[in-house]
Amino acid sequence: MSGKSSASRGEARFDTALGVCGIGWTESGVACVRLPGDPGIDLMSPMPVNTPAWLSAAVDGIRRLLSGEPADLTGIPVDLATVPPFLRRVLVEARSIPAGVTETYGNLAAKVGRPGAARAVGQAMARNPVPLVVPCHRVVGASGAMCGFSAAGGVVTKRRLLDLEARASKA
What we know:
The protein is an alpha/beta fold. The chain has helices at residues 53-66, 85-95, 105-111, 118-126, 154-170; strands at 10-16, 19-26, 29-34, 45-46, 103-104, 139-140. It has a domain at 85-170: Arc Repressor Mutant, subunit A.
């Protein structure tokens, strides 16, 4: 994405309780999310004023989620047009994992018709272009162990996100 501030395509940064995030979009939906500490956020422009309502809702939802408030991002349109088919299937399935719930890589593999492909699902989660909107942090190891997380802070960030969601679900 080019950093354009057009309402139909662009990318921008915005502040959250955990730090600066970035979001990229097309006319079809959110195409990327960058979490605090991810490279390149500082090169993004501030969020433009004239954006589609769904983009404002996505930013507001991410802000709520990262401040420990309940946030439902399932209605936010996502643009996965450039994502390979297997990754897209995994992301669509992962998006259905409710807040406060975790799913194992193996169970997610079975749900997308690839039982035994837990490692491939793990690799797909690591390539998730829209974390939080597609909650890859809710996917854990077979024993419930926190395994890998590609965002800055790794597993510590994953645990923090799950803790925020658990706290929000009790509110």
